[in-house]
Design brief:
Elements lengths: L5 H22 L2 H26 L14 H8 L5 H20 L7 H19 L7 H7 L7 H16 L14 H14 L14 E7 L11 E2 L5 H9 L2 E5 L7 H10 L12 H6 L7 H7 L3 E5 L9 H8 L3 E3 L17 H14 L4 E6 L20 E2 L5 H29 L5 E7 L10 H5 L5 H6 L5 E8 L8 E5 L4 H8 L6 H12 L2 E3 L2 E3 L5 E2 L7 H9 L1
Parallel strand pairs: 1-6, 1-8, 3-10, 4-5, 4-6
Antiparallel strand pairs: 2-7, 3-9, 8-9, 11-12, 12-13
Helix pairs in contact: 1-2, 1-5, 1-7, 2-4, 8-19, 9-15, 14-15, 18-19
Length: 553
């Protein structure tokens, strides 16, 4: 960046120097302040590097809210962390501390520090939150921010300026305009768009409802390689027998909670500022309307089950705020058997949720989130290795091994889904299972597996729906009023679709969403799908009637 954009390079150097000087003034000792600054910059660069590799997106300021959850995050990525690099970092820190101990100290008196720190702090504040301040002109002159494309935003401006451009006080920005008149007009429009009447079509038995969101469940045979056997043959058969289609996930390679947010609240991640996580930033702080509270009002018992700690994404606070009567995490579970070296198996989660349903006298809504297929896909993940062999032209040994391990996990999830379906078919109570994968896997660094198999590269990943489509199937032990071919849909539509199939009376919001789905069946950033399955990269390219509906939404 220094050679191509020297103005941005020197502007970045100035901002880092200003931050370092503020640290020195705070601490009062030059070498320690400077050393801490360098360590912070190095760690941020490292985190940004690894996030780019495995998630194909940069580090956002809003990501820092999860720093208190590192004890839960590190075990999930532990095998991706280089021991050599870790030891090298520790060695550099120890060496630096030893050198500081031997060198003469340069200290600054507290009166001098206080006098200088006040204007420096004001300058730093003005440059970090530059909107409508005198510092805004510097950003207009020395940067070229591209909020619509964060990869290019960070690449052309550098990670420091890229991060500063995404500092937002609010995770969700207020629409412009936003007032009483606009909202009243939107309500009128929503009533016109609504695809249903206010009343139930007919009285119906209230079935148990299970949202079974499977970690990283995706069809690996989409990759152009040969498999010794089909890893999801049972799922494929069930998708032919029951209503099925694809979910257009808001995430890739991670951020499971963001998919939960869409499925449970019917609000889209498209309107969350980059790096924002609704579980951490919004839902953990207050009660929030959801499919949970909607079903609670219909007399359902509701429970969320996740075989991990409740601190991750602050689920222990979020689930009650969404209306769940009970939240069951790893320490609360009866069944915790693993079929791999790190995570509780899908089969254990199924046993847990079936027991929960059977224990309830009233109809139950269960939201179960699995974890078994989470990365890493190391060779020793499953005892005895993978039972599936993979081969393909141009496939590196490392990629081949990871695809085999990932496919073994899909095979086990597939077998568990078959057993779950058999179990609900034997139940006396009417029951429906909404099964879907949360996102595609991150197999190898920088989309390595996808590149080697010809599936696509970073540019394709931004705008092609196939990078976000995961299997969706509605299993039931009774006849549901739902068409067999669901197509590709966003998770925001799952609750309205189910309510419609069960002939439930719904909030006007769900009726609006049913009408919206007819015009825009699936959408996320840079991918807006039309009813005929075509996609456009911007809502501006949609028909004006669809743009109006999306604006009201």
């Amino acid at each position: 960046m220094g050679q191509e954009y020297p103005d941005r390079y020197f502007f970045t150097a100035f901002l880092l120097s200003l931050f370092t000087f503020a640290l020195i003034l705070l601490i009062g000792e030059t070498y320690i302040g400077g050393g801490i600054g360098l360590l912070v910059y190095f760690i941020l660069a490292l985190v940004n590097y690894y996030k780019q590799i495995y998630r194909n997106e940069p580090l956002f300021p809003n990501d820092f809210i999860q720093i208190g959850q590192l004890q839960n995050v590190i075990p999930l990525i532990s095998e991706s962390i280089s021991i050599t690099a870790t030891l090298l970092i520790i060695g550099v820190i120890v060496t630096g501390l030893f050198a500081w101990y031997k060198m003469p100290k340069i200290k600054i008196g507290w009166i001098t520090r206080l006098v200088i720190f006040v204007p420096v702090a004001y300058l730093l504040y003005s440059f970090l939150l530059y909107d409508d301040r005198f510092t805004e002109s510097y950003y207009e002159e020395y940067t070229s921010f591209m909020p619509w494309n964060q990869q290019n935003n960070y690449y052309y401006n550098g990670p420091v300026l890229g991060m500063i451009s995404n500092i937002k006080l609010d995770v969700v920005e207020k629409p412009d305009p936003y007032n009483q008149t606009v909202m009243e007009d939107s309500v009128v429009n929503a009533n016109e768009v609504s695809a249903r009447s206010d009343d139930e079509k007919e009285k119906t038995v209230q079935p148990n409802i299970i949202f079974f969101m499977n970690e990283t469940f995706w069809d690996p045979t989409n990759l152009d390689v040969k498999f010794s056997e089909d890893p999801m043959k049972n799922t494929r058969r069930l998708m032919e027998e029951y209503p099925s289609g694809q979910i257009l996930s808001p995430s890739f390679g991670g951020e499971t909670a963001n998919v939960e947010f869409e499925a449970l609240t019917s609000y889209s991640m498209s309107y969350i500022n980059p790096g924002g996580n609704p579980f951490n930033h919004i839902l953990a702080n207050d009660n929030y309307p959801s499919v949970v509270s909607y079903l609670n009002d219909r007399g359902y018992y509701s429970e969320a089950i996740h075989p991990n700690g409740g601190n991750l994404y602050r689920r222990q606070r979020v689930y009650p705020n969404l209306g769940f009567d009970q939240s069951t995490f790893l320490d609360d579970m009866t069944y915790t058997k693993k079929d791999n070296k790190q995570f509780v198996s899908d089969r254990s989660v199924v046993k847990e949720l079936l027991d929960t349903v059977e224990q309830q006298e009233q109809p139950a809504f269960i939201h179960a989130v699995t974890i078994a297929n989470h990365l890493p896909y190391s060779e020793d993940k499953y005892e005895g290795g993978s039972t599936i062999d993979v081969s393909g032209e141009g496939l590196s040994p490392d990629t081949e091994r990871q695809i085999e391990v990932y496919s073994e996990g899909i095979k086990r999830s597939d077998e568990t889904l078959k057993k779950l379906n058999e179990s609900i078919q034997e139940m006396d109570e009417p029951t429906v299972v909404v099964f879907f994968g949360d996102h595609l896997p991150s197999i190898g660094a920088n989309l390595k597996a996808y590149k080697e198999t010809g599936f696509g590269n970073e540019e394709d990943q931004k705008q092609q729906a196939k990078f976000y489509e995961t299997p969706l199937v509605f299993l039931s032990n009774f006849e549901m009023d739902m068409k067999k071919e669901v197509g590709t849909v966003s998770p925001v539509y799952l609750a309205p679709m189910l309510a419609d199939a069960l002939h439930y009376e719904t909030p006007k919001f769900y009726g609006f969403l049913e009408g919206m789905q007819q015009k825009l069946p699936a959408f996320r950033d840079m991918i807006y799908m039309t009813p005929d399955g075509e996609t456009v990269p911007s809502p501006d390219e949609l028909p004006s009637s669809t743009q109006k509906i999306l604006k009201d939404y």
